[in-house]
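Handout, page 2. Input:
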Amino acid sequence: MQRFENKVVLITGAGSGIGRATAIRMATEGARLMLVDRSEEGLQHTRDQLPAGAEVLLRMLDVSDEAAVELCVAETISHYGQLDVLCNNAGIAGGDYGTVQDQNLETWQQIISVNLYGVMLFTKYASRQMEKQGKGAIVNTASVAGIRSGAGGNAYSASKAAVINFTMTSACDLGSHNIRVNAVCPGLIETGMTKPVFDYARANDKEQKLGARCELRRYGRPEELAGAIAFLASDDASYVTGQALAVDGGNTASLNLPGMKV
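Output:
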């Protein structure tokens, strides 16, 4: 399927994990790409995995830097002449898993800056071009941590809940311009961000427990998220906006309390 032929797709956090898988999926379906990440090495590695002949630009930047974001969107439009899809995928976990009484303001500010402000800034500038074109699709990567507790630290969870709400409010703002805004909420996916979890489990002979509390009894792959993102970004989802799609193996489908499942 070539659902993105003649379309330009900008993907943040494209240097690893879900962003990389999404870039590969979009390129396979014919997209021309602008890939953004703070890791130049990661971007180069992603480019090396794209199908032969894929047209791609790479930009290393901090998604919370408004001037850099504005310039990146402008460069995308200058080079390609259009911008059809924005995938706001960049995010950080922050590594702060203390209780509410032990929270660090600097850590909160860092996580919110990347996970929420980055989404807002790219949406702000990309949607202006999409409005001129009369059409566009934006897909934000949130998390099941934004739906319920137990899937991330306090700051990370709050940032992802905010992304879900921002998805809904921006969908309302932009719907009259034929711009759709949706979010995916990954469950446990093996990526660079979750590497410490997987490394710990494997080092302690607990890999079989990874994803055990999901209804599908396994963890997910970045490619499975890329498929959901591609759907929401495509015309197959032309009547879908303001939604947060959990891609979590059924994790949020039940109460999922400790000891409930065998």
